[in-house]
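Below is a filled-in request sheet from our internal design queue. Each sheet records the structural input a requester submitted and the sequence that came back. We keep these sheets so that new team members can see what a complete request looks like end to end.

REQUESTER: design group, bay 2
PRIORITY: normal
MODE: inverse folding
CHAIN LENGTH: 496
BACKBONE (tokenized):
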């Protein structure tokens, strides 16, 4: 039954009948001020949680004026260099009232440190903060590429953050293990479940090896999946992931807390399925993908905007994406039933098949030393390349139809407005960063960064010295520069 192990039909007995999923639209672009305005618009329109998209330099722990940041500042997310940027992004937003998700991995500790510092300025105690930091570096090595440090040191940062949250921010989800990015890179539904849960096992083992107990951190582990085009297979995928995670946790770790083996997940509709051709068709794709996530029992949901294959979402397209969720919740009736597809022979068969095939893949990975060792050898990377190549061939041959791309073509494209990017913002960003450095107490920054370096070298949890560093004005680039100097960097095998 729903709410009972192994949670195939949902982790709550009444699911959406008592509480809807969190509508959490991903947003961030240009500047902290512009992102703040977008957040406020979404909240005013009925969004129930925030989700921050950071630009590429921030995701790599680089300041906006770093040479490698040239041309990328504010392009695919918001640039956050200093605590002042974090203040601007959440200006007039009460952090005691909203939950915030931050898609950040290699510099996750630094961004959470800034968030905590700003919350404390607002008078919000750490133990009341609610939200999620992705903090999933393994999938960066496998599929996304935004990693900085070697695997062992990255895992140390991940478990430092998890351990700090246990004592300081117990309502915060300290990790969100992501299958989404591996699915975007080309893996199948079965591989998405297998690779995600394999990575989750690796994090659980590493956290226990660092001195944590499973029931201290596992209840705050969360997951992040894609919702792709095959509506019924995706529903079965979500059911299979819950079932298999419960089984894996019980067999290896035997937790006492039932929440430790409940798979809670966020879903995002599949960005890779969006097309630049006939872009308004994407609104239909997104609606069906969102419906499958709801039928599959997601805890929170982001619906992509129809124009994302062309550029950053406009205010209009972002509003339509949010309205898609609201229509599903209020007009379709699917939220009125705990498990609308219960008893479907097809769903049951698909669920069993995905559980079996994903379990076989996880066992294969474990037989080669586990998720981390297989990443070093490129095993998961090779599997994803093979699946992506097969899918591409099927689209190019017409075996898989993509409306507007290889079927139902039109001579003229649909004309839509796109989000305009103001390059002047980049220069003002760099000017503000220079002024910040000139106006801070440099001695305090130097001393704080020295304490952070000692923590990195000596094995102390890095979170408190990092919070102290950002409070006195250290930048994201300076904080992660310390980590680079101690930990070094690494290049993941491509799998090709």
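RETURNED SEQUENCE:
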């Amino acid at each position: 039954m729903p709410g009972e192990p192994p949670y195939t039909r949902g982790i709550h007995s009444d699911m959406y009948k008592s509480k809807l999923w969190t509508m959490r639209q991903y947003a961030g672009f240009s500047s902290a001020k512009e992102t703040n305005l977008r957040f406020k618009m979404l909240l005013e329109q009925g969004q129930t949680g925030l989700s921050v998209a950071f630009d590429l330099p921030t995701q790599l722990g680089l300041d906006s004026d770093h040479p490698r940041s040239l041309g990328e500042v504010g392009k695919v997310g918001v640039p956050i260099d200093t605590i002042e940027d974090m203040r601007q992004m959440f200006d007039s937003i009460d952090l005691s009232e909203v939950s915030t998700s931050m898609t950040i991995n290699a510099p996750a500790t630094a961004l959470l440190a800034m968030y905590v510092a700003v919350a404390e300025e607002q008078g919000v105690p750490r133990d009341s903060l609610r939200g999620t930091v992705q903090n999933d570096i393994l999938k960066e090595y496998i599929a996304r590429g935004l990693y900085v440090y070697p695997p062992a040191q990255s895992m140390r940062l991940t478990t430092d953050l998890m351990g700090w949250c246990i004592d300081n921010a117990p309502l915060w989800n300290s990790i969100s293990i992501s299958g989404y990015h591996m699915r975007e890179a080309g893996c199948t539904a079965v591989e998405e479940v297998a690779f995600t849960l394999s990575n989750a096992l690796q994090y659980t083992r590493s956290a226990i090896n660092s001195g944590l107990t499973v029931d201290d951190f596992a209840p705050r582990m969360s997951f992040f999946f894609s919702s792709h085009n095959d509506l019924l297979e995706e529903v079965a995928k979500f059911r299979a992931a819950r079932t298999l995670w419960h089984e894996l946790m019980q067999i290896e770790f035997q937790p006492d807390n039932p929440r430790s083996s409940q798979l809670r997940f966020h879903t995002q509709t599949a960005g890779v399925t969006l097309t630049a051709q006939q872009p308004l068709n994407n609104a239909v794709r997104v609606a069906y993908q969102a419906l499958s996530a709801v039928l599959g029992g997601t805890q929170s949901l982001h619906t992509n905007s129809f124009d994302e294959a062309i550029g950053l979402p406009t205010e209009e397209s972002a509003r339509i994406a949010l309205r898609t969720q609201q229509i599903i919740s209020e007009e379709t009736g699917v939220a009125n039933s705990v498990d609308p597809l219960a008893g479907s022979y097809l769903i049951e068969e698909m669920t069993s098949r995905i559980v079996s095939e994903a379990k076989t893949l996880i066992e294969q990975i474990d037989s080669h030393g586990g998720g981390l060792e297989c990443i070093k050898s490129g095993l998961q990377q090779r599997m994803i390349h093979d699946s992506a190549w097969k899918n591409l061939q099927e689209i190019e041959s017409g075996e898989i139809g993509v409306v507007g791309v290889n079927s139902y073509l039109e001579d003229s494209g649909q004309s839509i407005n796109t989000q305009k990017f103001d390059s002047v913002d980049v220069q003002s960003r760099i000017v503000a960063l220079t002024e910040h450095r000139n106006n801070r107490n440099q001695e305090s920054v130097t001393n704080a960064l020295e304490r952070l370096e000692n923590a990195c070298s000596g094995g102390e949890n890095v979170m408190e010295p990092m919070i102290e560093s950002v409070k006195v004005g250290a930048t994201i680039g300076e904080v992660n520069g310390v980590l680079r100097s101690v930990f070094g960097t690494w290049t993941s095998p491509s799998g090709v």
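SHEET NOTES:
- Residues 424-487 form one domain.
- Residues 38 and 315 are 8 Å apart (CA to CA).
FILED BY: M.R.
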